[in-house]
Amino acid sequence: MTGGPVTFSVTGPLCCAPAAPLVETVLGATSEVPVLFTQDALAKIAAGDADLAFRRWVRPAVRPGTQLRTAVGVLAVDAVDAVEESAVSDRDARRAGYADRASLLADQRPGADRTLYRVTLRHVGTDPRIGLREDTDLSAADLDAVATSLARLDARGGHGPWTTATLEIVAAHPAVRAADLAARLGRETLPFKADVRKLKDRGLTESLDVGYRLSPRGRLVLDHLRAGRD
What we know:
Blueprint: E1 8-9, E2 22-24, E3 26-27, E4 35-37, H1 39-47, E5 52-57, E6 67-70, E7 73-82, H2 90-95, H3 101-106, E8 115-125, H4 128-134, H5 140-157, H6 163-172, H7 178-184, H8 189-201, E9 205-207, E10 212-214, H9 216-229
Parallel strand pairs: 1-4
Antiparallel strand pairs: 2-4, 3-6, 5-8, 6-7, 7-8, 9-10
Helix pairs in contact: 5-9, 6-9, 7-8
């Protein structure tokens, strides 16, 4: 994957429907890339009822070897192949969650500059962040190490210390829109969301349907940071 962040959206039954999209991130890529799936799509992939997605792209938005972190665990992208419409079968359509080939093709984005790609997906396991955010068996040395890692994030951020302030505002305002939280801190929404993802990667926050909350680990770490200020 090259260039800036792109959105990997799978149309139709495996699509990023606006009703309840899940924004996830990509593992193993050069940058964090938002990926949208519906809960229904993820459930089908996790259950083994679907393992393909079809999308018309100007250029592929994912590549083989990419891993997608989702609400049902980690999905591996095993293959990304350009295909002709004539090569798509009813069986392919069913593997992508469609009733038949015609339904799948009718759901693709038109455009002479776009190529139809078949993406092969595989459920490979649980999201390691889930176990991490529930882990509160931390010694004083462990907590100091987490605090040190957060201080490094602050130093690399380019906009001053932000980790403790972000944990504090999520703790004070769970399930509040990211845009509203960012505004309270005088920040732009997208950079704020990117920073929250960095905390999520460390098991400190959890994404909700709207907004965030601190994980058990995040609450413990925030208490430790507060104690250090006293």
